[in-house]
Amino acid sequence: MNNTNEDVSAQDLELQSDHSSDYLAQPQPRRLRGFAATAAGTNSTGKGKKEREKEKERTKLRERHRRAITSRMLAGLRQYGNFPLPARADMNDVLAALAREAGWIVKADGTTYRQSIPPSQMGSFAARSVDSQLSGGSLRTCSVKETLENQPPVLRIDECLSPASIDSVVIAERDPKNGTYASVSPINSVDCLEADQLMQDIHSGVHESDFNCTPYVPVYIKLPAGIINKFCQLMDPEGIRQELIHIKSLNVDGVVVDCWWGIVEGWSPQKYVWSGYRELFNIIREFKLNLQVVMAFYECGGNDSSDALISLPQWVLDIGKDNQDIFFTDREGRRNTECLSWGIDKERVLKGRTGIEVYFDMMRSFRTEFDDLFTEGLIYAVEVGLGASGELKYPSFSERMGWRYPGIGEFQCYDKYLQHSLRTAAKLRGHSFWARGPDNAGHYNSMPHETGFFCERGDYDNYYGRFFLHWYSQTLIDHADNVLSLASLAFEETKIIVKVPAVHWWYKTPSHAAELTAGYHNPTNQDGYSPVFEVLKKYAVTMKFVCLGFNLSDQKANDSLVDPEGLSWQVLNSAWERGLVTAGENTLFCYDRERYQRLVDMAKPRNDPDQRHFSFFVHQQPSLLQGNVCLPELDFFIKCMHGEMTGDL
Predict the structure, then answer these.
(1) What is the C-alpha separation between 474 and 425, in angstroms, rounded?
(2) pLDDT, tens digit (0-9, with 9 covering 90-100), for 368-426
(3) What's the farthest any 2 CA atoms get from each other in the chain?
(4) For a disulfide at 294, which of 154, 258, 338, 623, Cβ 3.0-4.6 Å?
(5) What end-to-end distance do the CA atoms of the chain give, in Å?
(6) What DSSP assignment string belongs to 92-121?
């Protein structure tokens, strides 16, 4: 062993310090006590002070090392074990999660006990326990054939099971006639069954009641974007009626309609046209469906799969020809016209109005125009679009800029208004030379390890990197705060919804590069969603999370270290911890039951001890009249969300 090792030296120093303190604490002769006091007084002004400073530094290093280990352990439990640990979990949270995983009951005050199982259900309990562990590997449950004399009933545990699957046991009871032990497990084969066989048997008996009598989660279907043209005219009223007939037959709770800024205020500032939407809402009223409306302050047809292209208002684009800095800008100076830059939220550059004033005027006009529908309760909620695609994010991974999955994206802070904000923040911090974007952050399709900023131990975690990322994310938070403060005035006593993106790729890397460029300062050692959710909580907003409906096996780029489940649980638990109401929306069209199953599992987690669940779910799909939607699958999904499932999903 190397005696110069720092950790060993630190330990030796601690032992010496302990022995010295023990010695001084013992009763000593007066002459020796006086000598010790004199010596201590002499050395305290010099050598003792230096030693204390060194010990402080060593203590700091040990604490940092301990925190790094803890952070990696918690990250591993979240990412690979799907443990719903809080963002700032301690060892109590870890112990409680492990105990619940093993089947114990852990109450909020720490009381822990094991729930007893009736003997009549012991056989099926073993099968259900195996089901919960199959994802961790190939498990086998063997029947017990050993015979023991003069022994009470024996509980046998298969040695091939992992420690986490202790519940997967076979109960053997002694036959008094022949002295043998027969298994009471429903698996009576002498040979061990493989995992695939077990899965098939278990699913046939367990899923039937998985979601029956579970909480009722309303389901809304989003209507296509192109049903109203740029002149605010309803394109096909009869086609809409046929669509709503199909929707109503599926027992859907309501529909979601986008109100596009580029249509309503498309030609002149403060000249709002709502005629097409009035006709559409009247048809929806005939079918007695609830209505959610989206204030769409962004472009349609940028990154999504919609065939309709609905741009920002023409008068805004005309302003942008002379002042391109009203749009988000990347490092190369390319402008993104999907939505307005947050740098003009309080700049009077839109015909004498600021960005947030423009948003407020449209929201107020909508509330006034459809006051009758608000009064009668037809309009259930209003979603406010806070960024590209309606999601609270920077347009950092825009396909029109050449981005392709799984690129890390680029920072969007190079218009003159955001640059001025960055210079102001750097000056207040006392480091004016920090008033710049990172010059080693790569490009749209870079990988984290290819950059000096996002690589492991990269600049994202140094003093400048933390300053820049904090400013970048705080700008996103301030934009949400500014717009929601006015939305709460325009829509008093109406539920307000904000959509949060699911930037899941590179989630397993330390930097979480794609989340950083999107505006969420969420590296491994920090929770980047809690500050955002504090603002949403301030205005009692419902957080709608984008649910992907797939797992790692669906990914084409497994080398991008994706973790949609880990991200989902971090976001949802962070929101639930702050008392936010949550909801979901799928981003990929679902055609098979397996994906529907994942969406239901996310909306109503079966193992959540607090019984938390979504308040509603928005389902996106092609038109039901196109014939490429599997209606039986969709019908079963809706029944699962409603807690009415009566068969095997």
Answers:
(1) 11
(2) 999 999 999 999 999 999 999 999 999 999 999 999 999 999 999 999 999 999 999 99
(3) 107
(4) 258
(5) 60
(6) HHHHHHHHHHTTEEE-TTS-EEEPP--GGG
Buried b (16+ CB within 10 A) or exposed e, 533-545: bebbbebebbbbb
Task: Tell me the C-alpha distance between 417 and 347, whole Å.
Answer: 8
Phi, psi of 560, rounded to the nearest 5 degrees: -90, 10
Encoded tokens for 555? 């990914």
CA distances from 5 to 9, 11, 15, 66, 577 (A): 6, 10, 16, 17, 43
Give the C-alpha separation, 545 to 582, whole Å: 7
- H or E element in which residue 466 lies: helix 463-490
| Residue in 109, 108, 105, 132 with CA at minimum distance from that of residue 117 | 105
Closest CA to 159 of 173, 139, 145, 187: 139
Active-site residue set: 391, 585
At 325-369, the pLDDT tens digits run: 999 999 999 999 999 999 999 999 999 999 999 999 999 999 999
335-340 and 290-296 beta bridge pairing:
unpaired
Written as six digits, the tokens of 644 are: 């009415």
Helix (DSSP H) and strand (DSSP E) numbers for the chain? 19, 15
- How many CB atoms sit inside 10 A of residue 242's CB? 13
Contact by Cβ (8 Å): 236, 318? no
**DSSP 8-state assignment for residue 560:** G
Structure-block tokens of residue 53: 């400073």
Q: What is the pTM of this model?
A: 0.69
What beta strand segments (E) does 363-506 contain? 379-384, 495-500
